[in-house]
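Milestone 3.1: sequence recovery, worked example.
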């Protein structure tokens, strides 16, 4: 006997089919990143960071580790996703991509999570190779994942609106200059607490708590909530940017 449309069995099958399709897409993104040597580039950068950290005096190593760990999922993720989107534009992959049941949201999350996994592996290798494993690794993992997701979404949103590499770098310089201002607090140039509402400020607070006595529970929760809210805003920005890209393609005009 056939099940009527909308029954729990039908819905569960649709969800399972969607998850399988997303998993295949995620694997394709990983293969694309491997083919274009993203993993090789991350391995070289991670090795350079490890060498640099071991050259720094031990009493300064924690501060520099915070900054380098922050730069890995943030700036590298921001610019790597930009390069990936522009590469796909150059190959005109977007012209037929969304003719399939592939939604813009799935496209965004597949790219974001594949690069987040890469950033997390790199950050863990750098940290473990310098300080070993310890009980604060859970905080480190959470901070790296949330930081990577936010900055990758932000970079994707910027790249989707640019049609040249020069345009992307110009707009990225403006956006990243604002986003990374809280680094001045970590360096002691400005009071760090005034940057708590910045996504980078929350990220740096969590990374600092890996090495220093943990701040109050309220501050930790505020940092997590802050990053999650910024991720929501970044996803809306990225989603709208991808829709603008598709609108430009469908209208037959210049690609954004």
């Amino acid at each position: 006997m056939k099940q009527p449309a909308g029954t729990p069995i039908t819905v569960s099958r649709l969800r399972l089919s969607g998850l399988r399709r997303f998993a295949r897409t995620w694997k394709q993104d990983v293969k694309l990143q491997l083919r274009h040597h993203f993993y090789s580039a991350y391995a070289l950068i991670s090795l350079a960071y490890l060498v640099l950290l071991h050259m720094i005096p031990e009493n300064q190593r924690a501060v520099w580790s915070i900054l380098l760990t922050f730069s890995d999922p943030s700036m590298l993720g921001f610019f790597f996703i930009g390069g990936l989107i522009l590469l796909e534009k150059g190959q005109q992959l977007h012209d037929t991509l969304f003719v399939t049941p592939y939604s813009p949201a799935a496209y965004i999350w597949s790219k974001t999570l594949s690069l987040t996994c890469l950033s997390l592996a790199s950050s863990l290798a750098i940290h473990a190779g310098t300080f070993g494993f310890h009980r604060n690794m859970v905080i480190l993992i959470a901070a790296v994942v949330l930081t990577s997701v936010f900055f990758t979404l932000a970079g994707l949103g910027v790249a989707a609106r640019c049609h040249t590499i020069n345009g992307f770098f110009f707009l990225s310089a403006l956006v990243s200059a604002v986003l990374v201002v809280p680094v001045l607090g970590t360096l002691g140039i400005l009071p760090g607490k005034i940057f708590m509402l910045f996504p980078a400020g929350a990220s740096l607070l969590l990374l600092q708590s890996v090495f220093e006595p943990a701040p109050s529970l309220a501050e930790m929760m505020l940092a997590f909530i802050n990053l999650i809210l910024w991720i929501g805003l970044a996803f809306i920005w990225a989603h709208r940017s991808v829709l603008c890209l598709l609108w430009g393609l469908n209208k037959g005009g210049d690609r954004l």
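The two ends are 50 Å apart (CA to CA). Residues 250-256 have pLDDT under 50 and may be disordered.
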